[in-house]
Amino acid sequence: MKNVKYVKWRDRWRIVWAITRKDILEAWKNKTILTQILVVAFLIAYDHWAPALRDTPTDLFIYDPGNSQGTTQLADTPQFRLIEADTEQRLIELMDEADPGEIGLILPADFDRALATGKAAPALRGYVNWADRFEAAALARDFETRLAALWGQPVQLVLADHVVRPQPDTLGIARGSVAMMLSYAIFMLGVFMVSHLMFEEKQTQTLQALLVSPASIGQIIAGKALTGMFYCTAAAGVVLALKWVFVIHWELMLLAVLCGALFNVALGLLLGTFLENRQQMMIWAFIPIVLLLIPVFLNVIEPLLPQGLGTLIAGLPTVALATLFRFACTDGAPLARILGHLSLVLGSTALLLGLVVWKVRRMDR
Predict the structure, then answer these.
(1) Which of the listed residues 133, 164, 195 is the one where a domain comes to its end?
(2) Residues 191 and 280 in one domain
(3) What residue numbers bound the domain in which 248 lies?
(4) Dmax of the chain from CA atoms?
(5) How many CA atoms lie within 13 Å of 222's alpha carbon, on the beta-carbon side?
(6) Do residues 110 and 130 make contact, with C-beta atoms less than 8 angstroms apart?
(7) Using CB atoms within 10 A of its CB, is residue 108 exposed (0-12), middle (13-18) or buried (19+)?
(8) Closest CA to 84 of 65, 109, 102, 100
(9) Tens digits of residue pLDDT in 308-361
(10) How many domains, the chain?
């Protein structure tokens, strides 16, 4: 009996794998789907490399309790955009929201006198954000050179021992962009690619052929879902390969990627089964984009939104997913909030998959 069950499971998964392999290969032959893949790849690359090409002043966060002339010189140079903090704690908070490649600098109260004596290079403490934890030594050397040229005397920066661990409720635009890119890549490939695969099946009449073949309804859905999961996780893998320095909790990040891919694939299956062709998709596509994707971008600036709007969009599964991505890049996110967002994403996924199964059963009659 055990061998019979094993053979049945093996045969079922062989059918699922055949459907999945067919769809993975056909996705590259479909011009519409291939265009989506290339657009997602381009935006991922642009988001990663474009900031380095911009010729803009470097933000320099500084705490100067002695109101030294050194700070005045920094403010007068075009290579820095000076952002002053009134306490060291405020400096740490600012660094929590800083972009990679920026530092927080603390000038001692007697800094002017230390520069005037010129007997020894003043040792200055500073902070780097989490994403620069492996680049602290290189950043210290770079800023030592730039500051020495400005002040006319060598200085020593101590950065490696002062890494700011990001907190879950701060703005953090840089790590927010990680959440946005992950959300966008998974959404586009999960929703639009999977729905187009379903349209292809309808257009070529292969869906009806599958329904009268040995493949069950569950196997057909599983094959489409695995295809979408393959491309969603591949896109997320590319994003994380470029943005890995932002991640603190890898276990949460990987769980969020899998849950997010499954939700967006389920939404793509739902659109692909309920809509009959691409023309209908073009008409209705603005609904998931406006209701589910745009709020993700708003969520990145959540602390700046009116409280009512922030609370409203927090109930959307895509926003909950983006929040999980952000939590994976921060320290100390409450477990209750993590479980709440996971429950929202998984519950929404179960509802969507239930609707897909119901629709496909009706198509089988």
Answers:
(1) 164
(2) yes
(3) 2-50+170-363
(4) 91
(5) 12
(6) no
(7) middle
(8) 65
(9) 777 778 889 999 999 999 999 999 889 999 999 999 999 999 999 899 888 877
(10) 2
